[in-house]
Description:
The protein is mostly beta strands. It has a single domain, classed as Sandwich (Immunoglobulin-like), CATH 2.60.40.2000. It contains 1 helix and 6 strands; from the N terminus they run ββββββα. The protein has a 6-stranded antiparallel sheet with strand order 1-2-6-5-4-3, with no helix packed on it. The longest helix has 6 residues, at 88-93. The chain is elongated, with a radius of gyration of 16 Å. The chain starts with 14 loop residues before the first strand and ends with a helix.
Amino acid sequence: MPYDQMPKPPARPHSLSLDGRESLRVSGVDDVSGFDENLIVLSTSQGDLTVRGAELHIDRIDLEAGQLEVRGHIQELRYDEPAKSGSLWSRLFG
C-alpha cells in the first residue's frame, strides 16, 4: 500500500482554555515548531496554532498526551488551516 494511501491515525481531541489572558491550556498538540518569549507555534489536530504575547513561558508540555500549558500575557491566538495532503493532481482535481 503506498504511503499516501495509508490510513491516518485518528485526530486527537483539541481544546483551548484561556484564563484571564495569563494562562493557556491546549490539548490535541502534536508538535511545537518554535517558541520564544513573544511567540509559540504549535501543530494541533485542528491546524497550526500561533500564540503571540509577552513574557510567554511553557510551564508544562507532554507531547505523548498532547498537552501544553503556557503562562504570560497572551495577546493573540491564530489558526492556520492544516495543509492538504496528497499529490498535486489529487489536490487540484480530487
